[in-house]
Batch of 2 targets.
Target 1
Amino acid sequence: MCIEIKHNCVGGHQSAQFSNLDNVLPATVIDKVYCPECSEKPEFDATTMLEDNGWLIEYDMELAVYLLGKHSIEKEVVTPAYLFDSRYSTWQGMSPTDMEESIRERQEIIALAKVDKKKYFETMKSWSIDRMTAFTEAGWRKAQAA
Ligand SMILES: [Zn+2]
């Protein structure tokens, strides 16, 4: 069970939703989040940061190394990419705003059911496939084939 973690970007433009696998790592492992609009981005440092489609996540690597060490994961293994790709601290869904958008879009489609039943079923069917394709094409890390 993963609890919902929300983190505002440094500039306060957007809120990113995270999912930390089995809550092994707390929300505080995410030190800072920069959205594409954030102007004061630090220089990219692969030892503490992960870049995804214009977003930048800065992790508290000391905390991550310490806590994952308790699970016998060696510190050489623990990198920002590892935290993200192994789902210890990653977007909830495919992108930082995936969950919110998904809920909103679903509501719009459900509203369509009242107007046009046939269209509703067609839209529902293609919706998740189309979304996934869009994430892949946009270049989101989690949507790329492993
Ligand atoms: Zn921002």
Target 2
Amino acid sequence: MASPIRILTAVPICDGHDSAINTINLEFIRHGIEVIYLGYHRSVSDIVRAAIQEDVSAIGISSYNGGHIEFFAEVIGLLRKKGADDIKVFGGGGGTITHDDAVIMKRKGVDEVFFAGTSLEEMVRFVHQRYGKSRTKRPRPKSFDQQLAHKLSEIEDAYAKGKRPTRLRDATAWQALNAQRPTSKKKIRNSRGARVIGFTGPGGAGKTTLIDELVLRFLNRSPKGRIAILSHDPSVVGEGALLGDRATMINSQDDRVFMRSMATRGQAGGLSPATQDCLALLADSNFDHVIIETVGTGQEAMPFRKNGIVDLTTLVMNPDYGSRLQLQKIVMLDLAEIVVVNKSDLQRARTAHAEIEQRLEQNRRNQHLVDTVAKRHRDPGVDQLFELISNR
Ligand code: B12
């Protein structure tokens, strides 16, 4: 089995027409494609950075507000400049892109432009045919991020073929490359280098928004620091996946943040078969912190238990977990060092805090309980969580 095709989709800057791409994304994932969705109102540099870090085969742009000839050309130009012209560009924009425009766009390097009336089936077929072949001849990476992205793909590809990757073979070269990178690392918590912080919790608790707010604080506090995020979303029937965390992460669209989205590819429990090796590579890569986010998990999940893959575990809860009895069943309440009640502006949050506090007291483990409202800028609860994570 080869890895699924990975593509990035986005809507350009100053454009809020996302309904078309939302429909197209769902059709792609139903047909085995992994789609990293960046959201709307996205700049050329955000799109190219994400495409390189995610090591996608192609970028699909949906453009309705005009300026498409220039925008598509700028994406292609920046990909070339960054040595990533193996990443192809295609897209559409209904009737706003004329046939004459499309001729110019193709001359400038766009693979294909889809017009009004094209069936979803036709677009899926195009992606499978054009981007389905494995990319054997990769360009020589021009940057650290590009090299890292290629290596993460190698690990995922090896697992897709049922093998464990042989990445340790060139570990020395990797370490030498790493040594050239400046780092502001102050804390070395483990032999691998970076501190690995795990975030887990039920779907909809606000993990992604919370991580994005923590990243903002990290970037402000460490003007030269770098952070990596390994984010997971579930694969669906048909083996595609909508990897949508980037669309929520606004502050993390920054050159000092390396983010990689992973699909679970059939593994239960919140992570992918390749997670552990990918995480080890990131932890070896001179980031100050590595954040790992699981998919939304259930009561019995213990995603980070295996081989102590994280240094610190944070469980993010929604105040609406049901009755107090439900708390007894959530295994991570016994294991997490930090428990966050996010959305603490909701009516039930005070009761939730009291009930979870009582539940944690039974453990006698000195666990921390923090209330946050991640969607609120400068939330004091998120500040408190950031200090807690930074100082532990
Ligand atoms: C729905 C819509 C809206 C909705 C958007 C909702 C949303 N969340 O997306 C709302 C009402 C919010 C809206 C707002 C505006 N809109 Co409007 N909108 C449309 C409309 C009617 C349909 C677009 C659409 O989604 N079509 C459905 C898709 C599935 O079909 P399609 O467009 O034919 O696309 C095909 C292919 O191109 C392909 N495709 C499309 N994208 C991609 C991407 C990839 C990767 C691939 C493979 C294929 C592909 O898929 C389809 C296959 O058949 C168009 C008019 C039109 N008929 O195109 C105007 C239109 C795009 N809007 C327009 C305008 C002006 C606006 C506003 C500025 C209006 C205003 N003054 O406020 C705002 C701006 C919004 C913003 N923030 O950017 C103009 C743009 C004019 C231009 N560029 O020259 C249009 C053309 C209407 C018009 N004739 O004036 N709009």
